Amino acid sequence: MRPSGILPAILLLAAALLTGCASIDTSDPYAGTMNSLTVNLEYPEDFRDFSRAGVKIDIEDINRGNRYVAETDDEGRAIISLSNGAYRITVSDRTDEHVFNGSSDKVNLVDRDMAVTVSLLESKSGAIVIKEIYNGGCQAYPLEGTYQYDKYIILHNNSTQVQYLDSLCLATLDPYNSQGTNVWVTEDPETGASVYQDFVPVVQVIWQFGGDGTTFPLQPGEDAVVACCGAIDHTVQYPLSVNLNRPGYFVCYNSVYFPNTSYHPAPGNNITRDRYLNVVIKMGQANAFTFSVFSPATVIFRARGTSIQDYVNMEDVVIQKPGSTVDRVAKIPVSWVIDGVEVFYGGSSDNKKRLCPAIDAGYVTLSENYLGHTLYRNTDEEASAALGFEVLADTNNSMNDFYERSQQSLHE
After folding, report:
1. Helices and strands, counts by H and E, the chain
2. Mean pLDDT, rounded, for 338-354
3. Dist CA 242 CA 37 (whole Å)
4. The pTM is what?
5. What is the per-residue DSSP string for 174-210?
6. Which residues, listed in sequence order, are joined to residue 333 by a DSSP beta bridge?
7. What are the angstrom distances between the C-alpha of 298 and each of 138, 353, 355?
8. Composition of the chain by helix, strand, coil, percent to 5
9. Residue 7: its pLDDT value, please?
């Protein structure tokens, strides 16, 4: 039989411990202050009557990592009580025919109630989407250290029609990393609502698929692998890596502009020259293609009404980055972007959005580098079953569309 005095003592001790834990707050001295945050959704002018109840609003505490979900009422408004802090708001609303996305990257809620209006943009699903981004590297086993010269992306035909890769462009945005200084996205000082440019600032280089218009067909549900560096069999020396020397693969390779052989060794024997992507323009001074190992923002796009070669030669298209004497960017119209993915670095709380909500309202986080992890798009199981080929999720919100996979899909 248990002595009668032990249980009360245990309960008192537990209560004391819980009380002690609740009183400790090392992250925010104002954590106990609660404020009312009202989020109003503003649909595009032609869709004002879409406002309705039940739209989910994702709210992230940027500094502490806590996440909350609120839902709109009949007036398209959500009210939630939150402690002092800096919050990121992301909204995706999808109907049978339309996708609306919006975000506010940093809402500062301190000792007051606040109302924020999130302007929603209509997003278009792309026929070609980014299926996978492998940028974080792996362990150099059996050697010591890490390995990062094996980056790749996979593109996917997500439509029911044959698509052609010919003339498609690939680039990454400034800043290279999500926690870098972002001079292109500003915020409303009162509400923290993000204000984006009508272009995406692509940095360093624009790559382009070759072909005459029908050279590189991509069948419905078919993939295309692009080696961002090193179209070789990396597994020969690093078994935790991948083999990027396979027939049909493409590669970002130009030894004149990017002579660094650590990142850009001569492609393997299975990579034909017609699958080397062309350099449209080089804007930086690096000797290797800077595809961030931490957090790239990647886009694919096509020029409209002109060639990309003619476009980059127009006045005020390629400009100096404000505050930099080295970096230049090319202003690519948002309407040209077919797909884009925002990657955040899991080791930082200073991540900032680079892609506007029309391209990617959210982001996908790479939690840790050099583990062979990859960022992979979810499959739309219902659509795949109906159409008979792999259809991928595409809401233009990477929080919904992507997940972090524990191993590269090309690893064998």
Report:
1. 4, 29
2. 93
3. 47
4. 0.85
5. SSSSTTS--SS-EE-TTT--EE--SEEEEESEEEE--
6. 199
7. 20, 12, 9
8. 10, 35, 50
9. 35
Q: Which residues contact 347 (CB under 8 A, 6 or more apart)?
A: 294, 368, 369
Backbone angles phi, psi at 175, to 5 degrees: -75, 160
Token match 């990393």: residue? 177
Nearest to 197 by CA among 48, 397, 396, 358: 358
Amino acid at 403: Y
- Full strand arrangement of the beta sheet holding 297-301: 278-282, 205-208, 169-172, 297-301, 337-345, 364-366
> What band does 20 get if pLDDT is binned at 50, 70 and 90?
very low
Whose structure tokens read 């029911």? 160
What is the rounded CA–CA span in Å between residue 144 and residue 119? 49
Assigned token pair, 278 = 């062309």
Torsion sign (Cα): 362, 367, 369, 374: negative
CATH class of domain segment(s) 34-123: mainly beta
Q: Phi-psi region for residue 211, left (φ > 0), alpha (ψ -120 to 50) or beta?
A: left
Q: What is the pLDDT of residues 280-334, one digit of tens each?
A: 999 989 999 999 999 999 999 999 999 999 999 999 999 999 998 888 999 999 9
Contacts of 287 (CB under 8 A, 6+ apart): 258, 259, 260
Place of tokens 């001079």: 183
Q: H or E element: which one contains 297?
A: strand 297-301
Q: What is the DSSP string of 130-177?
A: EEEEE-S-EE-TTSSSEE-S--EEEEEE-SSS-EE-TT-EEEEBSSSS
Closest C-alpha among 395, 375, 374, 397 to residue 383:
395
Q: Which residue has the higher pLDDT, 38 or 21?
A: 38
Domain boundaries, the chain: 34-123, 128-405
Mean pLDDT across the chain: 90
